[in-house]
Design a protein that fits this description.
The complex is a heterodimer.
Chain A: E1 9-10, E2 15-21, E3 24-29, H1 31-37, E4 40-44, E5 51-52, E6 57-63, E7 67-71, E8 76-81, H2 91-94, E9 103-107, H3 119-127
Antiparallel strand pairs in A: 1-2, 2-3, 3-9, 4-6, 5-8, 6-7, 8-9
Chain B: E1 3-4, H1 8-13, E2 17-21, E3 24-29, H2 33-42, E4 45-48, E5 53-58, H3 62-69, E6 83-89, E7 95-105, E8 108-113, H4 118-129, E9 135-138, E10 142-148, H5 152-157, H6 162-168, E11 176-179, E12 182-185, E13 194-200, H7 201-213, E14 217-218, H8 221-230, H9 267-276, E15 281-287, E16 298-301, E17 304-314, E18 319-326, E19 333-338, E20 341-348, E21 353-354, E22 357-358
Parallel strand pairs in B: 1-3, 4-14
Antiparallel strand pairs in B: 2-3, 4-10, 5-8, 5-9, 6-7, 7-8, 10-13, 11-12, 12-13, 15-18, 15-20, 16-17, 16-19, 17-18, 19-20, 21-22
Chain lengths: 129, 360
């Protein structure tokens, strides 16, 4: 069973979301997702100031095995991207919930958080895969 | 029902992630495919290739039989132990399988064919053999471990006895020798130096453990695929199959056209293709920007369209490379359809890395 921190929120499409305060949320992909994808070779991120809707594909994680779209778990404005992934995409494999974060969003509507899963809900959703 | 090699428990011990590979439960990686790839390019790695099929051919007609069966000519083999790479073709000139033939004497040869094609290969070999005085014997009692990388030979030497060391000392590429209870060959599928070692099932786990203790790192099918692709070596079922001519699969060098009277299976069909220059050809593609070329993608070239047969991220080069089957009219660049966009790629010879170095 892969690691699913209880303090995060999750999308069924395997992104995690962490509240940083001031309506800012960090987004990454789960341990389970990086295990499925295998060694990461490129990560394409959105641009800072991009406006995204919840559910919109806004990044790509490309591994030795496949290219996988990353969806914005909530809508808002991209306020920061993890530029370190440009030279070290393997950080997503090595530290999916920490240094392997992808981007930060300033939420346009924080009630969208309610549509996401808690750790238990996400664990159940990947059991069904 | 999946088969397991005799090394299955050793893979689990080493933390392997196992997958179904054409009916065999095999290690895809032991954690990181890319680290395993680098281990083979920079040091020494080992692969369990016991799922491959070993077939011994013996009898007074062995040479004549193989001269009929395969596109290359075993008459080129005159030194005991010398190996030859070639294809078995069907009458339409398609590739039934690619294989390595080891020569011992003109009445004794060893073939190593693919595992995914085992049943049809054995059926074909058996059917052709019916007209010859030969015995065809599959050798499932043997396992095979490929030890590859710049330090592979030196690390293997530390676990061989004196006689075995003497037997492999100075052995040129593409040779094999029976050394005590091991058959050791200077062949491989990575573009690095090393050995492929055939060992009895009873001794396989012990040999694997000794290699591990000697500092050889286990590597899975994932790394095996990126290594062979960088080296420009074909994968059966991806880069060629029964519908693809060897002339369209960078296998022209594995065909012996002389002597003209040697009537190998498929000769008439590929002779016509060769005269008409009618087959596609296999080229290398290089994408130096972000993204990974993937098998099955469409390739747009001057005068037509082709297809990527194998594509990957190249860990050695740091960008993506691919093999593609394309019309002969192709120029120095092409476009590949990637995630609904057309991307420019460079066209090169179908070989990218040799002995750890870029050869693009």
């Amino acid at each position: 069973m892969s690691n699913i921190p209880s303090e995060l929120k999750y999308a069924t499409s395997h992104e995690w979301v962490r509240a940083e305060g001031d309506g800012i949320y960090t987004v990454g992909i789960t341990e389970h997702a990086q295990e499925l994808l295998g060694d990461m070779v490129f990560v394409e991120l959105p641009d800072v100031d991009d406006e995204v809707d919840a559910g919109e594909d806004c990044a790509v994680a490309e591994s030795v095995k496949a290219a996988s779209d990353i969806y914005a778990p909530i809508g808002g404005t991209i306020v920061e991207i993890n530029e370190d992934l440009e030279d070290a995409p393997e950080t997503v494999n090595n530290d999916a919930y920490g240094d392997g974060w992808l981007f930060k969003i300033k939420a346009s509507d924080e009630s969208e958080l309610d549509n996401l899963l808690d750790a238990e809900g996400y664990a159940n959703s990947i059991d069904e895969d | 029902m999946t088969s397991k090699t005799v090394l299955h428990a050793k893979h689990l011990e080493a933390g392997a992630k196992m997958v179904d590979f054409h009916g065999w439960e095999m290690p895809i990686n032991y954690g990181s495919q890319i680290e395993e790839h680098h281990a083979v390019r920079q040091d020494a790695g080992m692969f369990d290739v016991s799922h491959m099929t070993i077939v011994d051919i013996e009898g007074v007609d062995a040479k004549a039989f193989l001269q009929k069966l395969v596109a290359n000519d075993v008459a080129k083999l005159t030194v005991a132990g010398k190996a030859l790479y070639t294809g078995m073709l069907n009458e339409q000139g398609g590739v039934i399988d690619d294989l390595i033939i080891y020569f011992f004497t003109e009445t004794q040869y060893r073939l190593v064919v693919n595992s995914a094609t085992r049943e049809k290969d054995l059926a074909h070999i058996g059917a052709v053999a019916a007209d010859f005085d030969v015995a065809v014997t599959e050798r499932p009692e043997y396992a095979m471990i490929a030890v590859q990388g710049p330090n592979a030979k030196a690390k293997t030497a530390t676990i061989l006895d004196e006689q075995q060391q003497a037997a492999v000392e100075g052995m040129k590429p593409f040779f094999g020798v029976q050394a005590g209870d091991l058959f050791i060959a200077t062949t491989g599928y990575t573009g690095e130096e090393g050995y492929e070692i055939v060992v009895h099932n009873d001794g396989a786990a012990d040999l694997w453990q000794k290699l591990l203790d000697a500092g050889v790192r286990p590597a899975g099918l994932g790394a095996r695929d990126t290594l062979r692709l960088e080296a420009g070596m074909n994968l059966y079922g991806s880069d060629m199959d029964e519908t693809v001519s060897p002339l369209a699969a960078n296998m022209a060098w594995t065909i012996a056209w002389e002597p003209e009277e040697r009537d190998f299976i498929g000769r008439a069909a590929i002779t016509k293709q060769r005269a008409e220059q009618s087959s596609d050809k296999l080229v290398g593609l290089v994408l130096e920007s972000k993204g990974v070329l993937r098998g099955g993608s469409k390739v747009i070239v001057e005068g037509g369209e082709g297809v990527i047969t194998s594509g990957t991220f190249s860990p050695t080069l740091g960008f993506s490379v691919a093999l593609a089957r394309v019309p002969r009219s192709i120029g120095e660049t092409a476009q590949v359809e990637m995630r609904k966009k057309l991307v420019d790629v460079k066209v090169v010879k179908p070989s990218f890395v040799r002995n750890g170095k870029s050869i693009i």
